[in-house]
Design goal:
Number of domains: 3
CATH topology of the largest domain: Heat Shock Protein 90
Strand order of the largest sheet: 2-4-5-7-6
Number of helices: 8
Order of helices and strands: HHHHEHEEHEEHHEE
Largest sheet: 5 strands, mixed
Distance between the termini: 54 Å
CATH class of the largest domain: Alpha Beta
Oligomer: single chain
Shape: extended
Radius of gyration: 26 Å
Length: 311
């Protein structure tokens, strides 16, 4: 918190400094023009230098503010990852110490094992998120058409169904109708794409995890796989959760980005999930976008992927 306050003070200082310099430059140039209005050549040079100074000050201030915000995002990411790693480790350690120091019956032992396995899955998920973000680099490369066509052909519907089964296993506390699935294809069509099955499964799993995470009251997630046209397939994941403000719909795919606000602060996360989704989708030659009618109105994420010709 101290570091964040210090950075806010730094931001205010540079903005104030820039504003004062701009005001001083304006005053000097206006005074000079009034005193030397006959010197046309000097007037032109003054205007040029004045424009250069103003542009430099604006660029300098903008750069500093962006760097400070980026550093704040990195700090928030480190804090979030530390929390996501420390919490399951502490939980596992507690249950292991209990098993070591106390005699527990078989029922309790099985409960302890289940909790430890769930915490291990959570820990593994966080590590995989960080590793995938590192592999994705600055946003994921597109790869070329030739590269994609050399990859295996995958049934997209099978990937989605497998991800849904994994989600049902991961969230046993949810009711049986929490997840719904539908397909929309022409007769005889198969939703075939070139790509890596593990990466596409990570895309769908991240979207499903987010849909559950940001539906605090009642989890109802609908997933649909469909044909858009002769060249594209789509996967749509819709929830009825907290929704996304219109101004944030494009920003949420940035690395480390977390939607600001007290309401969102209660949802923990690393800010990597949607960045990874976008990076992997781009790598497969597709794109992903979000839609929402606003806060409290749910959200829909659509993944568009190029289909295999003749699929």
């Amino acid at each position: 918190m101290r570091l964040s306050g210090r950075r806010r003070k730094s931001t205010a200082f540079f903005i104030t400094l820039g504003s004062c310099l701009v005001a001083l430059a304006v005053a000097l140039n206006v005074g000079w023009v009034l005193l030397n209005w006959r010197e046309v050549a000097m007037l032109v040079l003054g205007i040029i230098f004045f424009s250069v100074i103003i542009a430099g000050l604006v660029l300098n201030t903008t750069f500093l503010v962006r760097e400070i915000r980026r550093n704040e995002q990195h700090d928030a990411f480190i804090n979030a990852v530390t929390h996501e790693l420390k919490t399951p480790i502490a939980s596992i350690r507690l249950y292991l110490e209990t098993l070591q120091t106390r005699d527990v019956d078989e029922k309790q032992r099985r409960e302890f094992y289940s909790v430890m396995l769930a915490d291990s899955d959570r820990l593994l998920h966080t590590v995989e998120q960080v590793l995938r973000a590192g592999q994705s680099g600055g946003g994921g490369g597109g790869g070329g058409r030739r590269k994609r066509e050399s990859e295996p052909i995958i049934d997209l519907a099978e990937i989605v169904r497998a991800s849904l089964e994994l989600a049902r296993t991961r969230y046993p506390q949810l009711s049986g109708d929490a997840f719904s699935y539908a397909e929309k294809f022409r007769n005889g069509e198969r939703p075939l794409v070139h790509g890596d099955s593990d990466e596409l499964r990570a895309v769908i799993s991240n979207l499903l995890d987010n849909a559950v995470k940001y539906s605090p009251d009642e989890v109802r997630v609908s997933v649909q796989v469909m044909t858009i046209d002769a060249r594209r397939l789509a996967v749509r994941v819709r929830d009825h959760g907290i929704g996304i403000p219109q101004a944030q719909l494009k920003r949420i795919f940035r690395r480390f980005y977390r939607v600001p606000g007290r309401f969102m602060a209660r949802f923990k996360g690393t800010g990597l999930g949607l960045f990874i989704v976008q990076s992997l989708v781009k790598k497969h030659g597709g794109r992903v976008y979000a839609e929402s009618e606003g806060e409290g109105r749910g959200s829909t994420f659509t993944v568009l992927l190029p289909r295999v010709e003749g699929g």
